[in-house]
Amino acid sequence: MGSIATKNNRAIVFPNIYQHRTEPLELIDKTKNGYRRILAFFICDPSGLHEIPTTRTVPPQQPGVRKAAMKKLRDSGDLDLPFMMLETITKDLPSTISKEDNERYRMELMEERTKLNGNTRA
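User: That's the sequence. What structure does it adopt?
Assistant: Structure tokens below.
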């Protein structure tokens, strides 16, 4: 259909409704190292018509981040709860996600998008 040349220090932005494919990277000067960065931004409609989970409503999911936040809260002295009560409350929080599970979910998403887009890299 068409193509867009990538330029140094530039971003290509388009809505998710468009199918796309990335071609293999080829360096002009093969004696130097090179890389390509691909960032995906999933923009949400801020109108409030849909309930979208955000960092305001979803607790940290990485075990280390949650543990550090709980320690900071416990050590701050601002909490008037005994440690046992804090543990009782926090045990009902949704479980954290391991780095391995996160990577597995990421790979499943990529495979699903590849199948959806007809075996193009999405």
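The mean pLDDT is 79.
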